[in-house]
Amino acid sequence: MRRIYKTLIQNHLDKYRQMIFITGPRQVGKTTLSKSCAEGYPYIYLNWDNLEHREQILAGISVIYDKLTTTLQDQTKTPIIIFDEIHKFRNWKNLLKGYFDTIESRCKVIVTGSAKLNVYRRGGDSMMGRYFLYRIHPLTVAEIVDKHQQFTNEINPPQKITSTKWNNLLNYGGFPEPYLEANPLFYQRWINLKHEQFFREDLRDLSKIFDLSRLELLANLLIRQIGSTTKYSELAKKVQVSEPTIRNWISTLQNLYYCYAISPWSKNISRSLLKEPKIYLWDWSVIPEQGAKIENLVASHLYKAVNFWTDLGLGKYDLFYLRDKDKHEVDFLVTKNKNPWLMVEVKTSSNGRVSENLHHFNKQLKVPHVFEVVANLDYVDQDCFAAKKPTIVPLITFLSQLV
After folding, report:
1. Alpha carbons 198 and 271: distance in angstroms, whole number
2. Are residue 146 and residue 33 in the same domain, yes or no?
3. What is the pLDDT of residues 8-32, one digit of tens each?
4. N vs C: which end of the chain shows fewer Cβ within 10 Å?
């Protein structure tokens, strides 16, 4: 299926000189996307996990470029080199810098990875200015119902998703293969294999953690506390390791796209909490409790949206939650250029009255868009974002207007 990211990447290939970094969890479709975007160009695909490809990568740019250019059919098209999983090479940053500085004007470079391609400025060893980052997320309602969105602003017109597609998305998750198969037997085999690859291969190869059984226990505990603030000391007692170890392990799980953290927003909030994040999973389908699964699904839709809007260049967007010491709490706050822009409380059902906590925080923050999104309400063909005050809206209508 065509992903919404394809238009974004193709636009980059047409306009910009920088390398394209495509990151996201394993099996979210990064390799398929990169090859699809390279169609119509002469390109070569090199995967670090392939020994023959690894030899070519380490042989140097001249060998790769010569091999690529000898097969050129269309001299008017700029050739493309795709590097997959190259972050597994310890010196990958310097290698890519050398490649880019050598062939910048003659070739485009796409880099994909299932561990975060975090690049920091460290003295003279900087990748700044050499790449643009595109963060690939699982499928969402808006991507399923409208694969050809116009990327001129954040919000799209509402579109209805069928009940079958909605249930498949909720129960099989947003990773393309199990979603498209929509088969419980296939899904279970896929989940088992993904779990095995993650805890027996990815963690072994990309981290220095050896106590994988306890790390797996931590991962299971995180599934059970979706939507709750993270108590590192309590997790440390249950796993029987130190609190710094728990923090380090959760950071590793984040870097390998098992989970992500949302921090509390504290600016302009009286008696706000300052530290404890909430943890959500990239794959909400594994969460057994329905309310927590729906909250995680909404978190993932919002997280995808803020990453996409930021990568597109519409502004700087971030995702937070709200909670103060008086136990007022709202599930999500989206900021735009460091200002509160969208506030969301998730409910499985509604009593017809907007949550008092939404009103409480809106008095302090004056947020332009404030919604209580309700899972059991039927789709309404109406623009949620036209509302000028805190409003109850159907979950499926709201999600269809994002990305």
Report:
1. 40
2. no
3. 999 999 999 999 999 999 999 999 9
4. N
Q: Which of 308, 309, 281 is nearest to 297 (CA)?
A: 281
| 3-state SS class at 362 | helix
Residue, of 138 and 271, whose pLDDT is higher: 138
Q: How does residue 122 score in pLDDT terms, banded at 50, 70 and 90?
A: very low
By DSSP bridging, strand 259-264 and strand 131-135 are unpaired
The residue type of 343 is M
d(CA 39, CA 74): 13
pTM for the whole structure: 0.93
Distance CA 343, CA 60 (A): 50
Q: Which two tokens stand for residue 398?
A: 């709201």
According to DSSP, the residues that pair with 311 across neighbouring strands are none
Q: Are strands 329-336 and 317-323 parallel, antiparallel or unpaired?
A: antiparallel
Listed residues 81, 110, 135: the one ending a domain: 135
What domain range includes position 362? 141-400
Q: Please count the other Cβ atoms lying within 10 Å of the Cβ belonging to residue 234.
A: 13
One-letter amino acid for residue 317 of the chain = Y
- Please give the Cα distance from 47 to 58 (Å, whole number): 12
